[in-house]
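Below: protein 1.
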Amino acid sequence: MDEGEEGYTGPATLTIGDASLTVDVSLRGHFQPIDGYYHWYGRVAPHQELTDLLAGKKSPAHLTTPQGEATGELSDPDPWNRYRITGTSRPPFTLDTQA
């Protein structure tokens, strides 16, 4: 990770509507001083049930990791069928609070 970035890589639970999927994610984030918010983002590893559920469309989602949970938005998948997920404010992973 780059200096100033924090994140999480590993298993997570992705909830979309009534569906709950166990997925693998790679997440990062950073504080944006211009707007005063923490922005987190990442990719969900290819997952056939997720592909079948969303069929390439955007969707709000709730992501839970062993370190926390947050609501974000899934966007269109990339050519490798990995959906991007983004969110603002408290991320679904632990932040290093030591300066």
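Below: protein 2.
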Amino acid sequence: MKILIADDDAQLVRALSVTLGARGYEIVTARDGRAALDAVITQRPDLVLLDLGMPRLDGLGVLEALRAWTQVPVLVLSGRTDSADKVDSLDAGADDYVTKPFQMDELLARLRALGRRRASAEEVPTVRIGDLVVDLAAKQVTRAEGSGTPVRLTPTEWRLLEVLLAHPDRLMTREMLLTEVWGPSHGGDSGYLRLYMAQLRKKLEPDPASPRYLVTEAGMGYRFSPTG
């Protein structure tokens, strides 16, 4: 079984990697929320151990993004003891919640329980945009019906689309998108963003002039609306 450990505590990640690796688990690690999403897409883990307080994108954000396209089991490991944090995590899609510090025997038992009901290995991370299917693992957009001819996107268009799809129905400000796609030094270059959003809409929207899925929030940013 392949396990993704998503936590910014380097000491804990090392300890878990050694302990779980010694018991035959294959380990993948991520130190922030964005890297965790990328690892789920590219590494296809069977189970995710997720910290709530990570940089770039917190654990709840990761959970909400994952549940837009995958049912991979998620076990939250958190130092937060407030019952509200547990409720929020479970409501966002977590399968279980363990408070730090924890006993390794308990963690192993919970991993075995989740492993017995883990998502099918054939599950593919895909998102629908109208009559288009976005395969995040293959980095390919095709029409759900017809010839299946791929819609070609540039690397930058892909990166922008991935960020939007990772936050369904959430407002992504211009500054957030620019920082995620182009880096912190481009936080004010809104011209880049308008250009690439226009290109994405031409390729993905049924009517680019009246976008249904890649929606503009006037004066603020953009939102991916799954239902259109």
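The chain is about 40% helix and 20% strand.
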